[in-house]
Amino acid sequence: MSATDHSPSGHEDDLGRALRDLVDDASLPGLDSHIDVVRGRTRRRRAAKKVALGATTLCVAGALGVAALTLPQGARPEPVAPAESPSPSATPSPTPAALPSFPTPLTAQALECQQPAPTPTGDQLPARLSIDAAGLTVQNLELVDTTVTTTFTDDARITVAGEKWPGAHVVVQDGVIVSSLLPLPETDGPLAPEPGSSITREMSVDSFATCDPAGLNDHSPSLEPGDYQVYALSRFQLDSWAPVGADGTVGPETAGGLYDGWLVSEPVPLTIVPAAGADTVALQDVLLADTSAVLASLRQAAEAGSTVALDLLVDPRQISVTDGPSGTRTLTIAPNASTGERQRTASDDGWTLVLRGGAPFSAPAPSGYAFSRFVGTYEVLVDDSGATPTVSLQVIDGGMASQAPATKDREVCDAYDDAMNGIDTAGGPLGTYTDDFVALSADTAPAADSPLYRELRARWSDSPSAWWAVVHSAELMRTTDHGGDSLALICEGS
């Protein structure tokens, strides 16, 4: 056991010695009396606090010694309570949000032709779709490229099915879908975008309508020049969702088929303008047996992006005309079983002509023989994907005629009547008619390749019924043994 004296008096002597050592060289007068004062105060504090003096005794004594040197004898400093450390306030971790309620998914059926314009999904889903253009302008029969951006929310970590065929969109006019371009329902594996990230992809918007006036998806010509709206679409199949807190904390994941629908952007204006420098192709003819010239003119207009000014005389006994909804009329040109000595061409295998808009005029010949006459300005689209061509004509804005143009068929039939009454008509229209159908019947070239056909057609442009009689008579001479004079059909009884 240590021999060190731990009694109170022993501690006081130690304290005195320590104080004297600290000021031994100071030689201050009255030092002993200061020491006595300090010793007394120390005794009283010890009795009150009952604090054990250990290794810190010398430090306390040193501090009291300095006090003894600077404070007057009557001063009694009060002990200073140690400052309490403020208790740190706990910052609670944010609680991640629960799975939100998503809107009713938009189906592909709701994006078909003639459906109401879709409602943009905005911020209702954990991704937002936008078109990266304030507006788009495209010439008819052309397309315009832009980009769309999908931005993923920063408050959720999600997994979605990758979109294999991006670029879907619908074109709307007057609140109704007039063209709908949706991809095949195929995905491209899972996609786990970082919260707050974005993906930008290309989108091509063309002026071709995928909707006909009846609301069916069909091959159709260009949308008419005018003002439209385009909505970008993106397939959105949500497979998992986990909330992300403000501090980046990721909450529990919810997995499964959480949503299967479409993201819909806000619309942007789409303006369709006529093609620059596109000339109108004039097509005035009859539709009978050799239709190659008519088909060739329609192809020319389609390939040039031109409209066609149509004046087409049709014999409904020879060409089937079927009325459809919304003013659609389908003309079916049946295959030609025989062309005689004329060279066979593609149109002889049959084709289909679909007219949308406009109306045929009843155009009886002077005899009362009934014809239908289709007159108007149309946009043209040729579809060769089927076994035989299909040509679609869409009447343009302001392209519908109010009446059929006047003809000179009456003058031809007057000459015919004179001839029947024994009046010499040599050099008149009747003599020209006979010469022309005989010459045409001997021409072996298809109408599309025949300079003679084009020359004769121009000669009879003011007399469509008489031109029909020329073509019909020539066809009879080519394909039958007896031939015939078709002028009687349009003039007798007049």
What letter string, H or E per element, gives the SSE order? HHHEEEEEEEEEEEEHEEEEEEEHHHHH
How many β-strands, per DSSP? 19
| Helicity range | 10-25%
How is the main sheet built? 8 strands, mixed
Which stretches are low in confidence, meaning pLDDT under 50 for 5 or more residues running?
1-12, 22-77, 213-220
**First CA to last CA: what distance?**
154 Å
User: Which geometry do the CA atoms define?
Assistant: elongated
The fraction of residues assigned to DSSP E strands is 25-35%
Radius of gyration, in Å, reads 50 Å
Helix/strand structural class: alpha+beta
**So how many helices?**
9
Mean pLDDT across residues: 79
Structural features:
single chain, about 500 residues, alpha+beta, eight-stranded mixed sheet, 9 helices, elongated, disordered N terminus
If you had to describe this structure to a student in words, what would you say it looks like?
There is one protein chain. This protein has 494 residues and is of the alpha+beta class. Helix content is 23%, strand content 29%. The relative contact order is 0.10. The model is unreliable at 1-12, 22-77 and 213-220 (pLDDT under 50).
Topology, pairings included?
Elements: H1 8-22, H2 31-49, H3 57-70, E1 127-131, E2 136-139, E3 143-152, E4 156-163, E5 169-173, E6 176-181, E7 187-191, E8 198-206, E9 226-243, E10 254-264, E11 268-273, E12 281-287, H4 292-304, E13 307-314, E14 320-323, E15 328-333, E16 351-356, E17 360-362, E18 372-383, E19 390-400, H5 409-420, H6 429-441, H7 451-459, H8 464-479, H9 487-491
Helix pairs in contact: 1-2, 1-3, 2-3, 6-8
